[in-house]
Write a structure and sequence with these properties.
The protein is mainly β and 171 residues long. It is built from no helices and 13 strands.
Length: 171
Amino acid sequence: LSLGDLSLLALEGLPETADVGAPLTVSWLWRADAAPNADLSLRLIWQQDGETAAMTQPLPISHSYPSGQWQAGEVWRGWGLTHVPGVLESGAYELALALVDGDAVIAQREAMWPMRVQAPERIYAPPAMQHSADARWENGLRLLGYDLENGDDTVSALTLYWQTEAPLERS
């Protein structure tokens, strides 16, 4: 499978079915058909009806030896740990691959692997709460409010109600 100056010889670790948020440890084997002259990364892209639904952050195609130093004919194994994007809805998707140099797409292959994704029921309306807060953090988290349960002269339970305003890179 040719992607620009590289050929993908093997790809392992993509399940047929996965839950949103599930970790994916993917390994790949590349051959340099020509010297790439750039330190390339790989993106996994979930497509549905030919449209991009979500994609991973770029994953280096080799942690041990940057692809910009590869010579024609060399073969290198790489791996990456990523997650099934949380923004996906339940349904059938096709995974595509893109080789990228920074934000620039060098080569892309469409609809290569099928994957059925399972997503939990999502509720976007905030629940009733005793106290409203509306505190916002720079990382996209928002504290909507809280409930307090009082015991004998102490607070026995505190429930916080959070909302994300943008996808979180880590929690």
